[in-house]
Amino acid sequence: xxxxxxxxxxxxxxxxxxxxxxxxxxxxxxxxxxxxxxxxxxxxxxxxxxxxxxxxxxxxxxxxxxxxxxxxxxxxxxxxxxxxxxxxxxxxxxxxxxxxxxxxxxxxxxxxxxxxxxxxxxxxxxxxxxxxxxxxxxxxxxxxxxxxxxxxxxxxxxxxxxxxxxxxxxxxxxxxxxxxxxxxxxxxxxxxxxxxxxxxxxxxxxxxxxx
Length: 211
Hints:
The strands form 3 sheets. Strands 1-2-3-4-5-6 form a 6-stranded mixed sheet. The chain has a 6-stranded mixed sheet with strand order 7-8-9-10-13-14. Strands 11-12 form a two-stranded antiparallel sheet. Helix content is 25%, strand content 31%. It has helices at 37-46, 61-64, 67-74, 85-89, 91-97, 170-181, 200-206; strands spanning 3-10, 15-22, 27-31, 50-55, 77-80, 110-111, 117-120, 123-129, 138-143, 147-152, 155-156, 159-160, 189-192, 198-199. The chain is of the alpha/beta class. The protein has a single domain, classed as Ribonuclease Z/Hydroxyacylglutathione hydrolase-like (Metallo-beta-lactamase, Chain A, 4-Layer Sandwich), CATH 3.60.15.10.
């Protein structure tokens, strides 16, 4: 099995940051580096990994606070859907509204397209554009011996992302989950942007927003 996943909370709001790596090539992607850059780098080093991409599920401040530091210290490319550029550019404003300091972000290196495959060694992370929480919200699907979905703030354990912030839409997030996520294999493990893991079958059966 060449897929390594390590998820842990970072930053002021406990965003789930995930290292996704190919154990054969030691290439890695970091999903949602929302802070605690030194810890992320230490965890990469502990496995002998080289970060290739910084994959952002969306551009709320708690998911991108560590992106500048990670780019500067590892050279990994900042990747984001273009529909969230307006939020990315307002990082300092977003953070200040919640009482946290922030630096101006570095430019996005690569804009993510729907259904694009990001190669991480022998693995690939497939991009699913799932607007609703934000206009550019994306999920990342990775499959090896198991299927794993990094759902950001689109789908949570028995909940969904809030839609009352900039560019949010309740109708869109429900549509995104039903048509893009609930069509994945039932056994798919879901690692959300905050809180505990879940599974697609669990959410299809028990998520109160769909019953």
